[in-house]
Amino acid sequence: MTALWITAALLVAGLAGWPVTALVFRLARTIDDKADAAKAAEEARKAAEDPAADVTVDAPHAETQSVDDELTAATDAPPSAGSAAEPPAPTQRILRGGAIIGILERLGVCLAILTGQPVAIAYIVAIKGLGRFAELKETPVAAERFIIGTLTSMLWAAGTAAAVKVLFLS
After folding, report:
1. 139-167 pLDDT tens trace
2. Rounded CA gap, 112 and 164, in Å?
3. Which of 37, 64, 139, 163 is the most exposed place for a label (fewest CB within 10 A)?
4. Across the chain, which distance is largest between two alpha carbons, in Å?
5. What phi and psi, each to the nearest 5 degrees, are found at residue 70?
6. Would strands 64-67 and 70-73 be described as parallel, antiparallel, or unpaired?
7. In b/e form, how buried is each residue of 60-97, taking b as 16+ CB within 10 angstroms?
8. Which of 140, 136, 131 has the alpha carbon at shortest distance from 104?
9. Taken in order 150, 151, 152, 156, is the CA torsion positive or negative?
10. Closest CA to 95 of 71, 129, 47, 50
11. Angle 58-62-64 (CA atoms, 0-180°, nearest 5)?
12. What is the C-alpha separation between 152 and 146, in angstroms, rounded?
């Protein structure tokens, strides 16, 4: 019966931890987006109150022509010179393999707690940090994502292991 509870704890910690981590990432992004919107609104309010911001600039003459008091587009510019013709810029994926590493991390943390070896958690964190060091050093977004994901995964795995150990293995 003990093996059944340990297996159940490992499955819950390893596989059910991914949606929890994804939810925390989404929550963190929502908070960041709200903070960015508030900052932009504050800057817009300050710009509206600034008397030096009441300066208007005339459009350059190369972009428009005046024919019989009508404003028309310049003849050398195509009417639809938008960004639709340009290919999208390639995006660089940060922290590749994070989902697999997260599952393994949660399994390791859960197993370490269930077997009474919490020191193994330090090894897991050290290996994960050393493996990601170059990416974390170069990209602040990756470092933030690494911290959020690691803490969420570890808390989920530790909570699952502790609950199973207290409720079913004592």
Report:
1. 888 889 899 999 999 999 999 999 999 99
2. 13
3. 37
4. 92
5. -110, 145
6. antiparallel
7. eeeeeeeeeeeeeeeeeeeeeeeeeeeeeeeeeebbee
8. 131
9. positive
10. 129
11. 70
12. 10
Q: What is the pLDDT of residues 75-108, one digit of tens each?
A: 554 555 444 555 555 556 667 888 899 999 999 9
Is the distance from CB of 102 to CB of 21 less than 8 angstroms?
yes
Q: What angle do CA 80, 83, 85 make, to 5 degrees?
A: 75
For 64, list phi and psi in degrees, rounded to 5: -130, 160
Q: Look up tokens 């599952």; give the residue.
A: 103
What does the alpha-carbon distance between residue 168 and residue 2 come to, in Å, rounded to a whole number? Answer: 8
Residues in the chain: 170
